[in-house]
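Retro notes (design track)

What went well: tokenization of the new backbones is finally stable.
What didn't: we kept losing track of which sequence belonged to which structure.
Fix going forward: every design gets posted as structure first, then sequence, in one message. First example under the new rule, 156 residues:
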């Protein structure tokens, strides 16, 4: 990965991590006012839209996200959710008595792998299609009038 790719990955982690931390706080606040599942759904929807917009504007520097970008980015978030859920369900099926540290290790590992895959899909597919073409340079014609000494004498 080139320097630009590393920089965009760092922005991806910062934006996604920031939204994740804010979402965690929002979930704690909302869970006191409504059922946890409803709070989680609300926080997930809002945080996904926010993260999509931040990735479009900051991570990949493409400006405001279009509806297509929001839908495709949301698809990658859903795929990442399915990967982490499958990892946790797999752990429960094969090692139902695993401790909390093991559960967290599996979850964080699956999240990291899903995040790397999500970044790759966003960079190579979703935002590759929205790359702004370079502006064409149009030649500029400049008219230059030259004056002879006789022309200047006639003016004076």
């Amino acid at each position: 990965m080139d320097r630009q790719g590393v920089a965009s990955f760092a922005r991806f982690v910062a934006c996604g991590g920031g939204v994740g931390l804010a979402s965690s706080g929002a979930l704690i606040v909302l869970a006191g006012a409504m059922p946890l599942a409803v709070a989680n759904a609300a926080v997930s929807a809002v945080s996904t839209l926010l993260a999509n917009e931040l990735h479009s504007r900051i991570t990949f520097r493409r400006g405001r996200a279009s509806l297509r970008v929001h839908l495709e980015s949301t698809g990658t978030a859903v795929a990442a959710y399915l990967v982490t859920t499958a990892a946790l369900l797999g752990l429960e099926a094969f090692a139902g008595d695993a401790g909390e540290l093991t559960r967290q290790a599996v979850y964080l590992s699956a999240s990291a792998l899903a995040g790397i895959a999500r970044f790759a899909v966003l960079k190579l597919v979703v935002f590759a299609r929205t790359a702004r073409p370079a502006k064409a340079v149009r030649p500029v014609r400049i008219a230059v009038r030259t004056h002879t000494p006789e022309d200047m004498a006639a003016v004076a």
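Added context from the reviewer: The helical segments are 3-31, 36-59, 67-94, 100-126, 149-155.
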